[in-house]
Amino acid sequence: MIGLDAVGIAAATLPGAVAVHHAFDRSEATRWRNAGFWAIFATLLGAGPWLPDLLNGCLVLVMVGLATWGLRPAPVASSDDAARAASAGRLGNRLFVPALALPVLTLAGTLLIPDGRIAGMSLIDPKQVTLIAMVTGAFVALLLAMRLTRPPRRSAGSVRPSPRCPAVPSGPDADRFAASGPCRRPWVYRSR
Question: Rounded distance, CA 46 to CA 40, Å?
């Protein structure tokens, strides 16, 4: 049966992912401090009900110590104003779809599954139906927002330049350039 424990475990995935992200960010000097803070937070959300109260309290004090010592997130790379305006123009009012998905799915789940039974099976704790519906709505809203705001796909001929590899030329020499040199891409094969 889905109850508060399952919601806590599901909620722990986000700070857990943030902890992993900070641990792999080699550009930030405080990465282990940041990763430790978010890992402890994920542990408290996911395993807190099963840990002894004294350990939960100690972990909270460690989090307070890490936060007091200083958490510094890496600067976020952002687009310029023109790119943001173009993205807003491209998306238009569709930006409201994820925002409206949360209350609609919460209300629908609460009204359609009042006793926690789905197809005759008791899957959700009847006391937690609204909370489970809200968590489901938040997850669906997150997926919709990620799908909606992803950058537009590039055409087959466009190439994304990187610091390691300058823009690949187009024309008759493009295949030869892509198959050799510092920008070698293993999935591009040159026919002879």
Answer: 10
Amino acid at 56: N
Please state, in angstroms and as integers, the Cα–Cα distance from residue 68 to each residue in 45, 147, 149, following that order: 21, 37, 35
- The radius of gyration computed from the CA coordinates of the chain, to the nearest angstrom, equals 24
118 beta partners: 121
State the amino acid at position 23 in one-letter form: A
Q: pTM, whole model, 2 decimals?
A: 0.55
- Is the pLDDT at 9 greater than 70? The verdict is yes
On whether the CB atoms of residues 179 and 187 are closer than 8 A, the answer is no
Q: What contacts 143, CB < 8 A, 6 or more positions away?
A: none
Token pair listed for 58: 């100690």
Q: Rounded to 5 degrees, what are φ and ψ at 9?
A: -65, -40
Computed from CA positions of residues 72, 38, 15, 130, in that sequence, does the dihedral angle turn out positive or negative?
A: negative
Contact between 67 and 30 under an 8 Å Cβ cutoff? The reply is: no
Task: Using DSSP, state whether 2 is helix, strand or coil.
Answer: strand
For the stretch 110-169, pLDDT in tens is 998 888 878 788 778 888 888 888 888 988 998 999 888 887 676 555 555 555 555 555
